Amino acid sequence: MEDDAPVIYGLEFQARALTAQTAETDAIRFLVGTQSLKFDNQIHIIDFDDENNIINKNVLLHQAGEIWHIGASPADKAVLTTCYNKTSDSRVVSCAAVWRMPSDWETGSHESLDDSAHNPQTLELLCHLDDSAHSNVACVLWEPMGDGKRVISLADNHALLWDLQESSTQATVSSSATLEGKGQLKFTSGKWSPHHNCSQLATANDTAIRGWDLRTMRQIYCIENAHGQLVRDLDFNPNRQYYLASCGDDCKVKFWDVRNVQEPVKTLEEHSHWVWSVRYNHSHDQLVLTASSDSRLILSNMVSISSEPFGHLVDDEELSEGEDNHQEDKGKEPLQDSVVSTYEEHEDSVYAAEWSSADPWLFASLSYDGRLVINRVPRALKYSILL
To answer: Are strands 371-376 and 362-367 parallel, antiparallel or unpaired?
Structure first.
């Protein structure tokens, strides 16, 4: 029985790092990384049992430090990356590493939520993704749909493309790009495009968004003042290769066609504080999630700029050739964009939102107080998209 009511889980630790377990397409599973200064940090493996509407969790120790970012291998369920802080010589450095979950984690401490973890197992370190020249890693990106052998790290003003070898126990930098310009430039976030044979990267630094060709490591476009303040997050439309979403501290969410970066195609102004996260649904790209420091998560139906603006699939080439070709769409207006739902289950800044990789209608959000909420796309909307 499917129920639209949210399911809430409290981690008892502050947290801001969330990812779906990308390689797991059967079970609904999310990974959360904690940010605790006092205690050993942990990765919480959150399994959602949608038949009974309950959450099961497992805990793994991440003793390296507080986790700022987490990413899951697209090919191997057991492998993940974290960006974490550690203190060395009384200064704080942001590091990154590749880890493997112990093979028997599922038998380890699978517990009902009221039990506290007795003896959590520890993640196995596979390799580091930082060196003395490139510390302060903001995020690590896995190659989309890849074989789990290529990652990009964004560290200060460098984008480094790493090859993982020997079952991810060795990492070597195969190429790199540097942000040039005045002042202390540093990347805040980035996204590896799933299009163009995974040869493009988008990055955010300050108020700018840049596109890079990973074959030459050269910049291919730049949106100088994409937002009025810091750009926090980016995401590519999974079905329309030139479309990119961004969000930032100006409380706005913007949608861009990177072939023409003068103006956004669309701007959303529904949040009242910084917007930390924007995510396209992997299957139905009109569905867009945004998470903000206003403690709200918003689900929008951006159908007019989706791959199905008339309620059925239209490809990019047709869309850019104007309306002449759409005999069947003549006289039909594109469907209207709308806010589907505003979710108010959080009481603190919502730093992350992610769609499930197993169920396209399900998503998780995480606020700083360690509250994880699992929600579903409202049933009426789901059926209007499917039918």
So the answer is: antiparallel
